[in-house]
Amino acid sequence: MVRKNGFVCIDLFCGAGGLSEGFRQGGFIVAAANDFDETSAETFKNNHSDTFFLDGPIEDISAKDLLRATGLKRGELDCLVGGPPCQAFSVYNHQRGMHDERSGLFRDYLRIVEGVHPKTLVMENVTGITSVGNGRAVKEIYEHLSSIGYRVDQQILRAEEFGVPQERRRIFFVATRLRDVPIMFPNPTHGECDLFGMHRKPIVTVGEAILDLPTLQLCEGEPVQDYPGTPSSSYQKLLRKRSRKVHNHVAPWLADVNRERMKHIPQGGSWRDIPYELLPKGMKRARRCDHTKRYGRLHPEGLACTILTKCDLHWGAYIHPTQERTLTVREAARLQSFSDTTHFSGSRVNQYRQVGNAVPPLLAAAVAEAVREMLNYTPRGHAKRNREKQHVASTR
Q1: If 0-12 CB within 10 Å is exposed, 13-18 middle and 19+ buried, where does residue 93 land?
Q2: pLDDT in tens, 66-98
Q3: Any catalytic annotation for residue 86?
């Protein structure tokens, strides 16, 4: 039986645990989780030892399995969260479409919703889900949830507006079956002031995120190493909290031709700075306005591009801002807002994949706080909080 002194959630398609970590930070108990990938499961179990983990494909998991694991009855769960695999909807997948077998896994999420009957739910995905198949998946999500008594809304959230040092857009579906409770999404906390003049914190930069980590040459690094000094930013201090060592910080190997290409790329630069004779054949035919992130070197005062499942310099801006190499797993995890206490298992290829597939924990935490406000909702309390926000804005 799960503890009753906090809101409880279950995480489906949990991967390395970005949503779980964010919801934990947002005050939830993650009672159970599921994923079929063995290395992601190992990472999750090592970092969330208090969560009951159900191994195997979601198709083999029933609502009764989850209720039995948590000791809850149907209708008692506070929130069901999950990010069904997004590769079938991603703009990076040029064969994307509803024909991809992965595109139907959101239906298993909906099947679990119907069986568990949570008070609220959160489903995360790439924004491409709205366009593939003329938005068929989104229409199906709305229709199915409505048919079983849920109200649902969607919003595209920008990770950088919630303290994540990365340009990342993701769509979140939030739903509830609770009467008279409005569907809520988090308000941005970072970036320029909003239309109401509410103050926001400055965007967190690449330099503030990773420049305290050990300096490495190509292929250098150890699985576990010491920090070279103290944190120099509040973000570094936050992510280093309770961490005594640096894990997963090994510089990848690069071919000689890519080493030569890197020499010509300044901070904030890209393939367009590489001499023509050194360009890959495909890039020689590209227009100057195309593929603006490929072979990019990060700028320490800017944001990272979207962290994908490979930090391959041919895919985007994954060259270190001050060192002649691409990003390590730990640097990618920092740019995703994973704490340094989160250690990734498996081969390095698998570690990059786990990091890139994850929901940034700080973004997930913001969503969790909005869901918690829904679960705590009373009309009088909500009106009071709105008045307080308006008063703060009017005094600035």
Answers
A1: middle
A2: 999 999 999 999 999 999 985 554 445 445 444
A3: yes
